[in-house]
Amino acid sequence: MNIPIFELERVQSLFENTVDYNLTESGFHPYTLNELLEKDQIDTLTNTVLGYGQTNGSIPLRKRISAMYNGANEENVLVTNGSSEANFIACHTLLEKGDEVVMMVPNYMQIWGIAEEMGCIPKAFHLREENKWRPDIEELKSLVTSKTKMIALCNPNNPTGYTLSSEEMQEIVAIAKRVDAWVYCDEVYRGAELDGEIIESFIGMYDKVMVNGGLSKAYALPGLRLGWLIGPETLIADTWAYHDYTSITAGIMSHYIGEIALRPEKRKEILTRNRTMLNENLIVVKQWLDQYGDLFEYVPPKSGGMLFIKYNLDINSTELAEWLRTEKSVFILAGDCYGMDHHFRIGIGERKEYILAGLERVKQALKERFNLS
């Protein structure tokens, strides 16, 4: 096996369903079909013929997706099984062995592993914690060379919740243009901004841009496994060819439900529900952290469903996460998954009472082991 174990996903898959309190969820508490759909829509769904459908995504769904991006139409869209498949297909479409990939970190590390498996050369440019997670643009400039094929970004960022400013986006595009590199951006948290203002997409800023999106995070519909790629029409045609060799198609019921979720009024309803949850939960989680003084340090997120926290305890992050899981049946995500010890990630998009109950278990554990009250 030439591909490295995707540690972040593997750890979550192993443990998130075996604890009383899973605080690693990176999205929002999911909808039920009864909450999301009208009765006539459910009736239509139950009478749907379970065929393959259009393998690159139904035309109505692709039209809904393209309407969210400047200058795009349905031919600029490939529908995938989640944004994880979108990342895999994008890398295999854009990259070849020996290409350099300069990647924003910390990040959802899937692209790093794919690049290594393909024989590419990944390089890291950093969001700086000491600078409120702003990107180190000078470091990016120093790493990009004539061999750089892709600058890989995550905006809004997982796990920090940082969102790039328009000026930072323009600077990154200018750097890519100088070496004719692709800008590939994971935009799966677009729509989960705390202030309610949806950030600009990289689409339309440069002719060599591809982005992904999906319904698992900002839309609280992970069970649909519905993602997408947006890019130049000829390139999207190439990604469809790779899609034929991976999953072939997303499910026809996901196509139907996804199109409903992205209708303007329904989309507004979903995003408002999730942002309200995020803002309310952030207040109570900050209060919980702040009771410990300088034990915990954090930069409040601008977007996304999580909080990335630095802690000042003499214990490795994987050891801390394992101890809380086995002793208190609470699961947090160790910073080691991002290559950043003495940090951990918790989700703040779940039900408030669930999060607080999990944090009460953490409080008990800190008192028992570290005499913290």
Describe the structure.
The chain has 373 residues and is of the alpha/beta class. The chain has 13 helices and 14 strands. The strands form three sheets. The chain has an eight-stranded mixed β-sheet, sandwiched between helices. Helix 5 packs parallel to helix 6.
SSE succession: HEHHHEHEHEEHEHEEEHHHEEHEEEH
Summarize model confidence as the mean pLDDT.
95
Name the poorly predicted regions.
none
The end-to-end distance, rounded to whole angstroms, is: 47 Å
Pairing-aware structural class of the strands and helices?
alpha/beta
The spatial strand order of the largest sheet comes to 2-9-8-7-6-3-4-5
How many β strands by DSSP?
14
Main pleated sheet: 8 strands, mixed
Note the total helix count.
13
**Fraction in beta strands:** 15-25%
Helix content: 40-55%
Q: In one word, what is the shape? A: globular
Radius of gyration: 21 Å
What is the element layout, followed by pairings?
Layout: H1 7-15, E1 21-22, H2 33-36, H3 39-46, H4 59-66, E2 77-81, H5 82-94, E3 100-105, H6 110-117, E4 121-128, E5 134-135, H7 137-143, E6 148-154, H8 166-179, E7 182-186, E8 209-214, E9 226-230, H9 233-243, H10 252-261, H11 264-290, E10 296-298, E11 306-311, H12 317-328, E12 330-331, E13 333-334, E14 343-347, H13 352-370
Parallel strand pairs: 1-12, 3-4, 3-6, 6-7, 7-8
Antiparallel strand pairs: 2-9, 4-5, 8-9, 10-11, 11-14, 13-14
Helix pairs in contact: 4-10, 5-6, 5-9, 11-13
